[in-house]
Amino acid sequence: MAHSLAVLARRAAPALATAALLGAAAAPAAYADAAPSASPKKLPDGLYGTKDPQYDGVWRQSLALLAQHTAGVRPAASGIGWLTGQQCADGSFTAFRADPGKACDAKTMRDTNQTSAAVQALAALGGHDEAVKKAVSWLKSVQNKDGGWSSMPGSPSDANSTSVVIGALAAAGEKPASVTKGGKSPYDALAAFQLGCDAKEGERGAFAFQPKDGKLAPNADATAAAALGALGKGFAVAPAGSGVNVPVKALTCTDGKSDAKGDPKRAAQAADAYLVAQLEGDGQHLLSAMPGAEQQPDVGNTADAVVALAAGSHGSAAQKPLKWLEKNSADWARQNGPAAYAQLVLAAHATGTDPRSFGGTDLVAALNATGPKPAGSAAPSAAPDKDAKDNDDSGIPWWIIGVGLAFGAGIGFLISGRKKKDQL
Fold it and tell me: Please, what's the b/e burial string for 166-196 (b: 16 or more CB within 10 A of its CB; e: otherwise)?
């Protein structure tokens, strides 16, 4: 789900927030003075969450709707309508448009991540073929010559954005390998971000967010996102089924040549092997650190890793981090709202786990409580209001509060794992 859907995504960032957080290259001239719509004084009807949607409105809305769909919940029409109303005439989405009635112009900060998340949600819900088609056409129009995408059109490709777009293409019924620019496919772009035989042995198979000074550094968030993308999958991964388990296999080298070269599925397996090694070394969870802070458990990125492992049919490898999430994610999700709950629902879905009984939390009811009442009823929760709306920080581990503070601008998990440092 690239982003942290990491934190992520996973997986996977709005252009302005990405540039500020990552120290990314300056915006192209067309977007240099662009900014998302100003924060609304009153949140729009149908929007999930209570935090400022300026940087993650479309992202969190899309993830919430998609997660509800996987859990058998029929979202409210107002929630779907809010999302479709955010689309620009050219098919793109930005993070938030305070006045959807006003046409998008050159200053509108169009974003491939937000657009791809919306595509995945609308394609899953069905009945929005025209909106999906227009969005996919726009994504194709801003593909880079290396076959990949950046969050902000015109900037260099990155592993996370490329992977999120691959998920959108697949959800829309496209064949990602056939979507090319200059003869390069998205898989060609991803391959350029994977650390190979010239890397340290423990780093081989990992993915970098982007090259830095011409070099690749392993990044767990980018690795989880790319493992999904290399398999041609998006945020919603169908469970492999009981008894299905493929052991992970680290990248191997023969005469200095990687066995993953030219083979996206093998590249994904090597990425998963890197994630497993990181999870085992850090007590079944991944780590993150804000600049100047000590490393701390990264709940969202761990959830992304679970989805990536499940997508590769590595069921056994996904169990330990899944159990860790069941014990440690409730307060984090409560602090960070609908996208965080959605990320956990998607992790549960991918592993065949009941999201209505996830370490004692009904994730579905908690997610439902962050937005408009669903059109279809979900299973009742023992205390959904407490799960979703209790904002008392007492008793919450310090590291969850620390991560929550990083999300105060409403960016949520979307950017928290994106190239925070290249140490992961």
Answer: bbbbbbbebebeebebeebbbbbbbbbbbbb
C-beta of residue 229 within 8 angstroms of C-beta of residue 280: no
Q: How confident is the model at residue 376 (pLDDT cuts 50, 70, 90)?
A: confident
Per-residue pLDDT band at 16 (split at 50, 70, 90):
very low
Q: How far apart are CA 203 and CA 213, in angstroms?
A: 18
The neighbour count for residue 392, using CB atoms within 10 Å, is 8
Q: What is the pLDDT of residues 144-172, one digit of tens each?
A: 999 999 999 999 999 999 999 999 999 99
Is the predicted pLDDT of residue 29 greater than 80, yes or no? no
Place of tokens 């066995």: 259
Q: In the structure, how many helices (H) and strands (E) does the chain have?
A: 17, 4
Strands 296-298 and 257-258: unpaired
Expressed in angstroms, the distance from the first to the final Cα of the chain is 19
User: Under 8 Å CB-to-CB from 170, ≥6 apart: which residues?
Assistant: 176, 232, 233, 234
pTM above 0.90, yes or no: no
Tokens linked to 114? 């937000």
What are the φ/ψ torsions at residue 253 (nearest 5 degrees)?
Answer: -125, 135
Residue matched to tokens 């899953």:
124
**Which backbone phi and psi does 252 adopt, to 5 degrees?**
-120, 155
385, 367 Cβ separation under 8 angstroms: no
Rounded CA separation 71/54 (Å): 27
pLDDT of 30 > 50? The answer is: no
Q: Check if the beta carbon of residue 288 is closer than 8 Å to that of residue 307.
A: no
42's CB contacts (< 8 A; 6+ apart) are none
Q: What angle, 0 to 180 degrees and rounded to 10, lies between the N-to-C axes of helices 112-125 and 77-84?
A: 140
Please spell the DSSP secondary structure of 200-248, one letter per residue.
Answer: -GGGTT-B-SS-BTTB----HHHHHHHHHHHTT--S------TT-----
pLDDT in tens, 254-306: 998 999 999 999 999 999 999 999 998 767 999 985 666 678 899 999 999 99
- The Cα-based distances of 202 to 194, 195, 277, 282, 386 in angstroms read 13, 10, 8, 14, 42
